[in-house]
Amino acid sequence: MVNRKELNPESSPEAAFGARLRSSRELRNWTQDELAERMGYTGRHISGVETGRKPPTRRFSISADVALGLEGTADTFERAWSEIRHGSLLEGFPEYVGYESRAAEIRVYEVGIIPGLLQTSGYAQVLAESAIQRGAITAEQARERVEFLAERQAALVRTKPPMVLVVMDESCIRRPVGGHEVMDAQLDRLVAFAALPNTVLHIAPYDIGERRTLDRPVNLLTLPDCSVVSYVESQTQGHLERETTSVRPLMTAYHQLQAVSLAQAASVDMINEVRKGTP
To answer: Which residue ranges form the domains of the chain, and what is each CATH number?
Structure first.
């Protein structure tokens, strides 16, 4: 083959991605142009990714998975991209996001901060800048986190959007983040979210006391095949689980928490009261 560049997969994660893409393509006896046509790109773009001159994107990776028949497998290009792009994220989270982008239903419980999928860019930026000031992350990692959040939110805007059910501890709306202007816009976003046809929003008020069944953030995804995936996160660790015996108790606790939380209309009323500064 003329001008064939030899690849060194060990030189970088991007190089490993490109080498694997070339190998997968050649295994099917496809030219770069043939793969490009299946993916909606140009042969030159494929060449750039294979040789490491052009970094892969999430859209590119998903297109490669579709073209190569890797959707739903454990070793997708989308997962490889997540590992490249978001190496600073907690273990299990990039894989969780891969499931999230395809979920039929998303259930979220959060304590202390507004859930990521509902955060405004201003709110997310303040949290990232605070982490930089504490020395918890670098400026580059902060930028990646904010961009990654925007990508997660964008992935849920599709022809058949998922049903999104959110339960937030009252502390999420009471905790001021970024000053009045940032919080005002964020609370407006919550009210707008609750008005969508594919969403449900509940506030778990302080006065439910010991009836609060969950004490840390929990994400539960119902996938198109009706299986359920859970993701539970602590300050330093994230854990993805697909085993029914482990996921079912979390789903039960989530439903029990919904039962003692405020109805959506009452939740929106509380958000509006906080926004107006009333007790």
So the answer is: 9-85 (1.10.260.40), 93-117+156-276 (3.30.870.10)
